[in-house]
C-alpha cells in the first residue's frame, strides 16, 4: 500500500532555483547559509527597527512589522516549497487567512468548502459576514454543487483538500478553471498535506494559505501562517495588508518554523507510513464503524488524490460505533494525547464536534458528517506499533466498561 501512490517522488521546485528538489529546499532554505557571516542556521534578527544609512536610504529593512530578515528567509523558503513566486509569513494561520480575505470587498461572494477548519468558518461567518461579505458553504468535492453555488458576485472559491475532518478531496484544477472563467480566484488551504505532498499553485490555484503551526513547524511549539502566490499584481496589496494589519510573524517564531521545515520531508513520509498502518488497523477494529483516510484505495476520490498529490498525509478520522466510547478513548489513550491541532511529531487525538469544529452550527456539522461518534487522529512520528498498542488498550477499556 505504501507504494500505491502513483507519483510519490518529490518534484523539483519550480521557484527561483528550478533544479533543487523539495527535500533539499526544505533543509537548506532559500539562501543555503547566511552570506554575511556564513552562519548555517539563519540568525534570529531580534530587532524591531533598523538604522538608516542616510536620508532616503535603507538597508532594505526598516521596521520589523513590514519586513525582517529572519522572516524574509522563511518567506522565500515557503515560496520555493510551494513553487510560487511570493511568500508572506503571518503570526498564525488565521492571521494569514484574515489578511487574505482583505483582498475582497463588501458585496463579494465566496464559495467555501463546508467541511473546513472551524476557526476559518468563525472568521468568515461571524466577522466578515458582518462586514457585508457573503459565503456559500458547499461540499466542493461535488462539482455539481459547486457550480450551483456560483453567483454573479462570486469572486473566489476557498477550499481545503483533503477536507478537515472528513477527508474529502476536491479537484483543484477543475475548480481553478471554473472560477477563472468568472474572473475570480481559487484559494487553497494546503495545511493538511503541506507543500511536500501537494502544490496547488501548479494545479491552477491562485493563492495558497497554510497554518504553519501544523506540519511546516511540525513540533507543536509555535504558531505561524502563510500566503503563497505567483501573481505580481497581488503582491503589493498583500504586502500592504501584512504591514497594516500587524499580524506578521515574529523573528523567533520565524526561526522555529525554519528549523521545523528542515525535517519536513522526513516527517511527512514517516507520518504517512504510520497513518497507513493505523488506518488499516482501525478499519478492522470491531468498535470502529468507519474510517476516513485518503490513502484507502476505495476512498471515493482515491484516483483524484493520486493525480494531484504526492502523498496522503498523516490525518485519519473515524466513527466509533458507540458514542459512549468517545470519553473513554480520550481519557484512556496515554501515548496519543487528547489535544487540538495536528501535524506535529507527537500524535494527537481530537474530538472535532467540541474542539476544532465547535464554532460551526449544528445543522452544518451534521450535514458534513461531524457528529458525536467522530474522532480525528493526527498521526505523529512515533513507532506505529506503539501507537496501535495505545489505541488497542484504550479500546479494550471501552469493551470492559460496556460489558461491566
Ligand atoms: C490550524 C488550522 C488553521 C488555523 O491556523 P492557526 O495557525 O491555528 O491560526 C487553518 N486551517 C487549517 C486547515 C488548520 O488546520
General description of the model:
The chain is an alpha/beta fold. It folds into 2 domains: 22-261, Type I PLP-dependent aspartate aminotransferase-like (Major domain) (Aspartate Aminotransferase, domain 2, 3-Layer(aba) Sandwich); 265-403, Alpha-Beta Complex (Aspartate Aminotransferase, domain 1), CATH 3.90.1150.10. The chain is built from 14 helices and 12 strands. It has a 7-stranded mixed β-sheet with strand order 1-7-6-5-4-2-3. A 5-stranded mixed β-sheet has the order 8-9-12-11-10, covered by helices on one side. Helix 7 links the parallel strand 5 (185-189) and strand 6. Helix 2 runs parallel beside helix 9 (251-261). The longest helix is centred in the C-terminal third of the chain and has 21 residues, at 264-284. It is globular. The structure holds pyridoxal-5'-phosphate.
The number of distinct structural domains comes to: 2
- What do we call the CATH topology of the largest domain? Aspartate Aminotransferase, domain 2
How would you spell out the order of helices and strands? Answer: HHEHEHEHEHEHEEHHHEHEHEEHEH
Fraction of residues in helix: 25-40%
CATH class of the largest domain: Alpha Beta
How many beta-strand elements? 12
Using the CA coordinates, give the radius of gyration.
Answer: 21 Å
Q: TL;DR?
A:
Helices cover 37% and strands 14% of the residues.
Throw out a few tags for this protein.
404 residues; alpha/beta; Aspartate Aminotransferase, domain 2; Aspartate Aminotransferase, domain 1; 2 domains; 5-stranded mixed beta sheet; 12 strands; 37% helix; globular; binds pyridoxal-5'-phosphate
Amino acid at each position: 500500500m505504501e507504494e500505491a501512490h502513483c507519483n510519490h517522488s518529490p518534484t523539483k521546485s519550480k521557484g527561483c532555483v528550478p533544479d533543487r528538489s523539495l527535500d533539499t529546499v526544505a533543509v537548506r532554505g532559500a539562501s543555503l547559509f547566511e552570506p554575511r557571516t556564513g552562519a548555517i542556521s539563519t540568525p534570529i534578527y531580534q530587532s524591531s527597527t533598523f538604522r538608516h544609512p542616510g536620508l532616503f536610504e535603507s538597508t532594505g529593512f526598516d521596521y520589523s512589522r513590514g519586513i525582517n530578515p529572519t522572516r524574509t528567509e522563511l518567506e522565500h523558503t515557503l515560496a520555493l516549497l510551494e513553487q510560487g513566486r511570493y511568500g508572506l509569513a503571518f503570526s498564525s494561520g488565521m492571521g494569514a487567512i484574515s489578511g487574505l480575505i482583505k483582498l475582497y470587498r463588501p458585496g463579494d461572494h465566496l464559495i467555501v468548502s463546508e467541511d473546513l477548519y472551524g476557526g476559518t468558518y468563525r472568521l468568515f461567518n461571524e466577522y466578515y459576514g458582518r462586514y457585508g461579505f457573503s459565503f456559500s458553504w458547499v461540499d466542493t468535492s461535488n462539482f455539481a454543487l459547486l457550480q450551483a453555488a456560483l453567483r454573479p458576485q462570486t469572486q473566489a472559491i476557498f477550499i481545503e483538500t483533503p477536507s478537515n475532518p472528513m477527508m474529502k478531496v476536491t479537484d483543484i484544477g477543475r475548480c481553478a478553471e471554473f472560477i477563472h472563467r468568472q474572473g475570480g480566484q481559487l484559494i487553497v488551504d494546503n495545511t493538511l498535506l503541506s507543500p511536500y505532498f501537494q502544490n496547488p499553485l501548479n494545479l491552477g490555484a491562485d493563492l495558497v494559505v497554510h497554518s504553519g503551526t501544523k506540519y511546516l513547524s511540525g513540533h507543536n511549539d509555535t504558531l505561524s501562517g502563510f500566503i503563497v502566490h505567483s501573481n505580481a499584481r497581488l503582491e503589493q496589496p498583500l504586502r500592504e495588508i501584512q504591514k497594516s494589519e500587524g499580524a506578521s510573524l515574529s523573528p523567533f517564531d520565524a526561526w522555529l518554523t525554519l528549523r521545523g521545515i528542515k525535517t519536513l520531508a522526513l516527517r511527512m513520509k514517516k507520518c504517512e507510513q504510520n497513518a497507513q498502518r493505523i488506518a488499516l488497523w482501525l478499519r478492522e477494529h470491531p468498535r470502529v464503524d468507519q474510517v476516513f483516510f485518503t490513502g484507502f484505495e476505495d476512498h471515493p476520490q482515491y484516483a483524484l488524490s493520486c493525480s494531484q498529490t504526492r502523498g496522503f498525509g498523516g490525518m485519519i478520522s473515524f466513527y466509533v460505533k458507540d458514542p459512549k466510547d468517545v470519553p473513554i478513548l480520550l481519557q484512556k489513550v496515554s501515548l496519543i494525547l487528547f489535544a487540538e491541532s495536528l501535524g506535529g511529531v507527537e500524535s494527537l487525538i481530537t474530538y472535532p464536534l467540541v474542539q476544532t469544529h465547535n464554532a460551526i452550527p449544528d445543522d452544518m456539522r451534521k450535514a458534513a458528517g461531524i457528529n458525536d461518534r467522530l474522532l480525528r487522529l493526527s498521526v505523529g512520528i512515533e513507532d506505529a506499533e506503539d501507537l496501535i498498542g495505545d489505541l488497542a488498550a484504550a479500546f479494550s477499556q471501552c469493551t470492559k466498561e460496556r460489558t461491566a
